[in-house]
Specification:
Length: 314
C-alpha cells in the first residue's frame, strides 16, 4: 500500500499545473482539511481506497497502473476473517467497500458464481442470515459442546452490516451463475442440524418460510431481468459442477475479486492478473450455462420448481 501511496503522490505532483500547489489540486478531488491533505502528500497518512479511486477517476488513470513493480510470480492477496464474537463482519464489509467504490461509476458491474443461496438476497431475511452464521460457528467453534441455534445471539452490528450490504448490492448490476442444485446445501445443513437436535421444529419452519420467500424474490427478479431497485439482474444456470464461490467487481478505474474459503473466510485482491483470471473463469462458466433471466422460460420454471421441491423434502 505504501508503494501505491508513493505513486499516487508522484502522479498528483506530475499533473499539477505550473504555478499551482499540489495540495490545491488534491483539494478539488478530496475536499477535506488541507492539513490532512498535506499529511497525505508527506506520506504521514495513507490514502483510503475510496480516496485513491476518486483520485484515479479525476486524473483519468487506472489504479492498476500505479501499483509498484513486483516479481511476476508475486501476487498481493488479502486474507479476511470475520470476528463474529465482537460483531465484526469483516468479509461483508470488505466486499461492501469495493461496491461503494465501483458504484460511483455508471459502468460498474458485479459478476459472481455461487453454489448456494445468493447473498444478494439472503441478507434480507434475519433467520436465514442467522442460520448462515450458526452453521459457520458450528464448523469453526473449538468448544466440544455444540451450540444450539436458539442460543446464538446476533449482535446489532452484524445485522446492520448485513442490511447495509444487501442495500448496496441491490444497486449494482449483477451477473450471476447459479448451480442447478442451489438449494441442496441449505437443505442438507438443515437435515443435519435437525438430526443432532441443534434446530427446533419452530426454527426449521421459519427457515423454510423465509427460503420460500427468498425463492419468490429471486424468481421475480430473474423473470424481470432486474431487481426492485431497477439494477439489471442477469442469471445463468451452470451445466457444469463448480465448488468455487467467487465475486468479481469492476468499473473503468477499479477492479477487485473475492473468493470464499473455509466456509467463513475470504480472500480478496485487486491484482490485475488475478482479476483477469477470475473474470475469465466466470466467463468460461457462462459458455456452459443457460440464460434464464428474461428468457429461457422453460428452464427457469423447471429450475424454481426443483428448488421448491427440495425445500418441500425437509
Amino acid at each position: 500500500m505504501f508503494g501505491l501511496h508513493q505513486e499516487i503522490v508522484r502522479v498528483i505532483k506530475e499533473k499539477t499545473p505550473d504555478g499551482m500547489n499540489p495540495v490545491d489540486v488534491l483539494y478539488e478531488i478530496i475536499p477535506i482539511r488541507k492539513e490532512s491533505l498535506y499529511r497525505r502528500l508527506r506520506g504521514e497518512m495513507p490514502f483510503t481506497l475510496d480516496e485513491a479511486s476518486r483520485i484515479a477517476v479525476h486524473l483519468g488513470i487506472s489504479l492498476d497502473k500505479l501499483l509498484p513493480h513486483k516479481s511476476k510470480d508475486a501476487c498481493n492477496v488479502k486474507f479476511v476473517h470475520d470476528d463474529l464474537k465482537n460483531g465484526d463482519c469483516k468479509t461483508i464489509n470488505q466486499i461492501r467497500e469495493a461496491l461503494i467504490t465501483v458504484k460511483k461509476n455508471s459502468e460498474a458491474s458485479l459478476y459472481t458464481a455461487t453454489n448456494g443461496l445468493p447473498f444478494s438476497h439472503l441478507y434480507k431475511y434475519p433467520t436465514l442470515s442467522k442460520f448462515r452464521i450458526f452453521a459457520q460457528n458450528y464448523q469453526h467453534r473449538k468448544e466440544t459442546l455444540p451450540q444450539k441455534m436458539s442460543e446464538l445471539v446476533i449482535s446489532p452490528q452484524i445485522r446492520e452490516s448485513e442490511i447495509s450490504y444487501h442495500t448496496m448490492i441491490q444497486q449494482i448490476p449483477i451477473n450471476y451463475i447459479w448451480a442447478k442444485n442451489m438449494v441442496q446445501p441449505f437443505v442438507t445443513d438443515i437435515r443435519y442440524f435437525s438430526e443432532i437436535n441443534l434446530l427446533s421444529q419452530e426454527e426449521i419452519d421459519k427457515l423454510k418460510e423465509e427460503a420460500y420467500s427468498l425463492l419468490n424474490d429471486l424468481e421475480q427478479d430473474v423473470s424481470a431481468g432486474k431487481m426492485l431497485s431497477g439494477a439489471p439482474f442477469t442469471v445463468f444456470l451452470s451445466n457444469n459442477f463448480f465448488d468455487n464461490n467467487c465475486i468479481y467487481v469492476e468499473s473503468h478505474s477499479f477492479r477487485s475479486c473475492f473468493f470464499k474459503i473455509f466456509g467463513i473466510d475470504l480472500l480478496s485482491s485487486t491484482e490485475s492478473d488475478l482479476c483477469d483470471k477470475t473474470k475469465e473463469w466466470i466467463w468460461s462458466l457462462m459458455k456452459y450455462s443457460v440464460l434464464i433471466s428474461k428468457s429461457g422460460i422453460v428452464e427457469r420454471v423447471h429450475f424454481f420448481k426443483q428448488q421448491r421441491n427440495l425445500l418441500d423434502s425437509i
